[in-house]
Structures are given as structure tokens and as C-alpha cells.
Amino acid sequence: MDRRFVAVLAVSLLFALVISGVFYQVVAGSNRGPGRPHKIERRDLVVAAHVLSVGGVLKAEDLKLTQAPVDDFPAGCFSRFEE
User: 64 and 78 in contact (C-beta within 8 Å)?
Assistant: First the structure.
């Protein structure tokens, strides 16, 4: 092979490697979120344990307790079974 061809090929590969490394750093840097996720405050929420029939009487086994973020807590919902 010609020496000039090998030199151009080597420089081209080195240039491609540097450009792809820079591109990777830019893309990987933009995907970083906050360093440490903050703890989300949660609140108890009473939900149906299964599909309920219309007009039926609720029993304790028809309900279950789950957790919901305080920011997304629906208005008018209950936090205890007694409510």
C-alpha cells in the first residue's frame, strides 16, 4: 500500500475516534439528572381491592390501603378505613 494512503487512513480513524468520543460525552452529559433523587413524601390512600358492584355494601375485605405521593393525592379521598 502507498504510505500516503496509510497515513490518511490513520489520521481519519483518529479523527473519527476523537469526534465520536466528544459526541458521546455531550450526549451522556445531557442525560444526567440530579445527582441524588429526593425522597418523595407519601400518604396512605384507601382504594378498592377488586371491582365493586354498583349499589353494593362495602366490607373491610373490599378495600385495601396503598401509598400515594402527597402532591398527587386526589381531593376527597380517604386515608383511613374508618373514614
Answer: no
